[in-house]
Amino acid sequence: MERLGRRARRLGAAAVAIGVVTATLACAAPPPPPPQSTANWRIQANTLTVVDDNNDCFGLCAADEPYLVNLGFRVKFNSPNSASTFVVDDVSNELLCQGGPDNNGILPGGTESCNTGETVSVPTAMGRLSFPNLKLVDVADLAYGYTPEVAGAFTLAYEEDQVFGSGNVADTVASFAGALRSALNSTIAAGTLPADGNAAAQLIVDVIGQVAARFVGNTLLGLLSGLGNADDLIGVAPLVVIGVTGTLASLVSSAGLSSTAVLRGRVVTAGGATTTNVTYTRQTIAGIGLGEADTNYRVSWTLGPA
């Protein structure tokens, strides 16, 4: 009997030990979430084509001196006041077209200005916007509270006025940065994404559609006046990358991202590189024409990993 008693006491002690271990494991903190994925992204102008030039006259004014100015931005969902902006430009060096058609028969071929039908490469200093460590999210990441980052640019095409001289267009565009940050902070940065993938996708599409209209609405008169700049604004187009991948990228696309109105621009997810042609010409915003109706530039852009 004594032997059986000792055995029972040993078994009881073992059971208590197992219970303590089990309780300890149950109370242990869950493992930390995996780090949020990031990627280096770029938005880059490849070429500019003068589909219809602005200077429809003769002699020295018979062709265009086009250039781009880009107001870049990045902002994170559910991150108050996270919007930041920067300007990429090379206004001092307008684009030059070598060896194209002559200037309406007045000047010899090979002059530097760009005629209708000519295409020119856009240098990195004028056309590349870099976004290192863009924060990415798929459906599973929503459960951890991770939210995507949105990066992009409001791209503006100008034609230089060589008669009256250019003003500082980069400073003009930079003066709109505060309005853009305000629009981004009141929409994307204030947006809280639900954990449900479909609901998150719909909210992303709805919010992105608000940003362009709100920003341009706040800066429309400034863009029209040029703030004293003699150069011609040909057109405006936003380019946007949303840091969603995998299943969530598919859900965002299905929710209507491709049909979201962004002033002739383009919105893409971070699923891979996209090359697209964007047209710069007059468009009507809030009943007001913005840009040049008799001019048309086409720019090839790539939005993709750096």
Please describe what this structure looks like.
The chain is of the alpha+beta class. The protein has 2 domains: 1-30; 33-305. It is 29% helix and 30% strand. The protein is built from 7 helices and 12 strands. The chain has helices at residues 2-27, 124-127, 139-142, 169-174, 177-187, 197-225, 246-254; strands at 38-52, 66-76, 84-89, 119-121, 128-135, 149-159, 232-242, 266-269, 274-280, 283-285, 288-290, 296-305. It is elongated and about 75 Å long. The protein starts with a helix and ends with a strand. Mean pLDDT is 81; it is low at 7-18, 20-26 and 101-110.
How do the strands and helices of this protein lay out in sequence?
Blueprint: H1 2-27, E1 38-52, E2 66-76, E3 84-89, E4 119-121, H2 124-127, E5 128-135, H3 139-142, E6 149-159, H4 169-174, H5 177-187, H6 197-225, E7 232-242, H7 246-254, E8 266-269, E9 274-280, E10 283-285, E11 288-290, E12 296-305
Parallel strand pairs: 7-8
Antiparallel strand pairs: 1-4, 1-5, 1-12, 2-3, 2-6, 6-7, 9-12, 10-11
Average pLDDT rating:
81
N- to C-terminal distance: 79 Å
Shape, principal axes of CA atoms: elongated
Number of helices in the DSSP assignment: 7
Secondary-structure element order, as H and E?
HEEEEHEHEHHHEHEEEEE
What class would the helix/strand composition place it in? alpha+beta
Number of domain units: 2
By DSSP, the count of extended strands is 12
Residue share in β-strands: 25-35%
Helical residues, percent: 25-40%
Assembly state? single chain
Alpha carbon gyration radius: 28 Å
Task: Characterize the main sheet.
Answer: 5 strands, antiparallel
Poorly predicted segments: 7-18, 20-26, 101-110
